[in-house]
């Protein structure tokens, strides 16, 4: 137990903790979190919105065709 309280051992432990924290900060400083996921999400969202718009236009065209058929049948 005496060797653990030796000032040299304590200073080596403190220096190793500081150096490891600095190394971890340097490693994580240039990371980009979620950028690719966000781009993919926005692309998928845009694609879904376009498909929904196309379906709405098709439904409106079908409704218009039904109304025209009903008018022809009534005439």
Explain this structure to me?
By secondary structure, the protein is mainly α. The chain has two domains: 1-31; 32-75. It has two helices and no strands. The chain has helices spanning 7-29, 35-74. The mean pLDDT is 85.
Give a quick set of tags describing it.
75 residues, mainly alpha, 2 domains, 2 helices, 84% helix, 0% strand, rod-shaped, Succinyl-diaminopimelate desuccinylase, DUF2897, membrane, transmembrane helix, transmembrane
Radius of gyration over C-alpha positions, nearest whole angstrom = 34 Å
Beta strands, count = 0
The average pLDDT is 85
Q: What is the helical fraction, as a range of percent? A: over 70%
Detail the topology: elements first, then pairings.
Blueprint: H1 7-29, H2 35-74
Short description:
By secondary structure, the protein is mainly α.
